[in-house]
Amino acid sequence: MYAYKIPTRPVPPHFMEMENTDKYLKKGYTGHIPCLNNFHGATNSSITNEALKLFTSRYEKEKANLKLPTIAGTLAPKPKMVSRRLPYEAGIIKNYAGHIPGSMFNVGETFSVGSKSTRIILGMNN
To answer: PANTHER family annotated for this entry (predicted)?
Structure first.
């Protein structure tokens, strides 16, 4: 009898061994390359190789962490959410490019002071 070899799909570079010399994405690949924004100024093969190595090491760490048992009460409390809204008494940010209603009548003031006084005039400082 002849042994029939079952065709296997090639392993994607994301999950190849770290030492594999083919662990890089070929030129023309249009998909997402994880961790690529950390590397600059080298050839395509060396950049994608380093990015994929970083991705694989992070993936392996996360995979190992999922197998660890979780004990009740050991999770750290979530940090308090910080509001990114400006307080009402603050002026508008310097690089703001939008419309400030009523600001055309404020003349001779800095941008911050002018936007504060505009808010007061319009009754927006509640």
So the answer is: CAT EYE SYNDROME CRITICAL REGION PROTEIN 6, PROTEIN FAM166B
Domain boundaries of the chain, sorted by first residue: 13-67, 86-126
Distance, CA of 19 to CA of 29 (rounded, Å): 21
- Length of the chain counted residue by residue: 126
Whether pLDDT at 87 is above 80: no
State the CB neighbour count (10 A cutoff) for residue 92.
Answer: 17
Q: How many CB atoms lie within 10 A of CB 120?
A: 13
What are φ and ψ of residue 114, in 5° steps? -65, -40
pTM for the whole structure? 0.44
Quick one: DSSP state of residue 4? P
